[in-house]
Design brief:
Arc Repressor Mutant, subunit A, 2 domains, 5 helices, 19 strands
Length: about 290
């Protein structure tokens, strides 16, 4: 806070030595991407450069003076930053700035809190401020917070393309600090999550339906195949099933009432029908039920 006060004091001292005056300044902040658009109508500029100072770091700066693009210097301050654009213009011109902002929305008391502070460091006849909330955002109910949801309270609120925006207009005094705050719920992240989740849920449903019909189809095939099996084939098949679906062929022989030759013939028949898979294992064969059985 002391640093901020020192910076503001320094700015005021510098501005008091300059006769720069502003007819109007209009700031629009879009919270969807944390960008700002500023239009400054300058009455008189006594310096060799137009400067714009905020207490927020700025990035991706674009500046036009009377529609002509300017290359400007950006200088970091102890708090915030300064845009400095050398120009030979001195009276009655318009400056348009676009830039990205940082740290203007913070989570607070289960809400998103937007705050924008601006110190009037040069004579300004009219200052207009506009903030546009993200798509789907809603103003918090005042009963849910210990602080006002919108400040100052002399604002206008409307919607544009389904998004809420708030506007203020004031005739500020030199050295006055303007502080704008809005508490809101940002549902845009939830919508993004749902947009991401919906395709996954849809895919899961499709896979589930296909799996259901596949299982139903497999069940019909198993029932059909079982109806065509001979008694000895059914007995061997059931023996394998109660042994977790796999057995050595020699164990089938020892646990059944059939001969080794009989078991060998039945195993071959079941393999031909695709009911079991047979692989060599040591001196015997590993007999395993196919997945659908």
């Amino acid at each position: 806070m002391k640093k901020f006060s020192a910076v503001v004091l320094l700015i005021l001292l510098v501005s008091s030595a300059a006769a720069t005056s502003i007819e109007s300044e209009t700031v629009t902040v879009d919270l969807a991407d944390s960008t700002a658009e500023v239009e400054v109508d300058v009455n008189e500029l006594s310096q060799t450069a137009f400067t714009y100072i905020t207490v927020y770091p700025k990035d991706n700066v674009h500046v036009e003076i009377d529609g002509e693009q300017y290359d400007c210097d950006i200088r970091k301050l102890s708090v915030g930053s300064e845009i400095r654009c050398p120009t030979d213009k001195r009276e009655d011109f318009t400056v348009n700035l676009e830039f990205s902002l940082e740290n203007i929305v913070n989570s607070q008391e289960d809400a998103e809190m937007f705050q924008y502070t601006y110190s009037v460091y040069r004579p300004t006849n009219e200052y207009n401020f506009r903030v546009i909330l993200p798509s789907g955002a809603e103003i918090i109910d005042e009963n849910n917070l210990t602080t006002p949801t919108i400040s100052p309270d002399d604002y206008n609120m409307d919607t544009e393309d389904g998004r809420i925006y708030l506007e203020w207009s004031t005739d500020p005094g030199l050295g006055e600090t303007l502080d704008y705050r809005v508490a809101f719920n940002d549902t845009s992240l939830t919508l993004e999550y749902l947009n991401y989740l919906l395709p996954l849920v849809t895919l899961g449903l499709i896979i589930g339906i296909l799996h259901f019909y596949r299982k139903d189809s497999d069940a019909e095939r198993v029932e059909e195949v079982y109806g065509e099996l001979k008694q000895d084939q059914v007995e061997i098949l059931e023996l394998i099933k109660i042994n977790d679906g796999r057995m050595l062929q020699k164990d089938i022989v020892s646990q059944s009432s059939y001969s080794k030759a009989k078991i060998s013939g039945v195993v071959s028949e079941l393999e031909e029908k695709g009911i079991i898979n047979k692989t060599k294992e040591g001196r015997s064969n590993q007999i395993k039920l196919s997945e659908e059985f």
